[in-house]
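[retry 2/3] High-potential iron-sulfur protein: previous attempt timed out, resubmitting with same input.
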Amino acid sequence: MKSVDRRGFLKMSGTTLIGLTLGGTALRAHAQEPLDADDPTAKALNYTASSTVDGSNCGNCMYIQGDEGKSQRPCAIFPGKLVDVNGWCSAWVKRPS
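[retry 2/3] High-potential iron-sulfur protein: success.
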């Protein structure tokens, strides 16, 4: 069993932290595509690009991410996909004020 000294541990920890940080940034910068209504997760959650529920849409859901003012934004429920801010799915939860 190989022993790791303090210096080796700090080097390994620093390299790991830098790798994780750059990896997360690369994933966020990765081009996203609009959510397809035929996506299995979208079907399971009854996603629709146009909400039929008064006062409930992706734009005011707690899972929506990204910059406000865009017509399509990332959603935590559908990783790597963009949802329409006027859309709705059964996972909708009102964003706290």
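[retry 2/3] High-potential iron-sulfur protein: The beta strands are 33-34, 72-74, 81-84.
[retry 2/3] clearing retry counter.
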